[in-house]
Amino acid sequence: MSTITCSRCGRTTEPMASTDFGGALGETLLAHTCPACWKEWEGQRVIVINEYRLNLSNPDHFSTLMRSMKEFLRLPE
Ligand SMILES: [Zn+2]
Q1: What is the pLDDT of residues 45-58, one digit of tens each?
Q2: Are 38 and 28 in contact (CB under 8 A)?
Q3: pLDDT greater at residue 58 or residue 20
Q4: Neighbours of ion ligand 1 (CB under 5 A)
Q5: Are 76 and 29 in contact (CB under 8 A)?
Q6: Percent of the chain surpassing pLDDT 90
Q7: For residues 21 and 64, is the Cβ–Cβ distance under 8 A?
Q8: What are the DSSP E strand ranges found in 1-77?
Q9: Would you list the domain boundaries of the chain?
Q10: What's residue 1's pLDDT?
Q11: Which of 7, 16, 52, 65 is the most exposed place for a label (fewest CB within 10 A)?
Q12: Distance from the CA of 9 to the center of ligand 1, in angstroms?
């Protein structure tokens, strides 16, 4: 895979070099999210965590964050 089309911004770019996520989610991120949009999400993630007062060791809170990430990045299910 040399280039990807980003689900969020629609640009065709180089994929991210790697992600923190393994498995299907990691593959989806690499295939559908450009490095610029990932950087935007990293900023947005802090806002989401603060806004919802998420405690990421709580599985329910973690899944809320994952849902926000998928919406923000417009990842396919
Ligand atoms: Zn993008």
Answers
A1: 999 999 999 999 99
A2: no
A3: 58
A4: 6, 8-9, 34, 37
A5: no
A6: 94
A7: no
A8: 4-5, 12-13
A9: 4-73
A10: 57
A11: 52
A12: 4
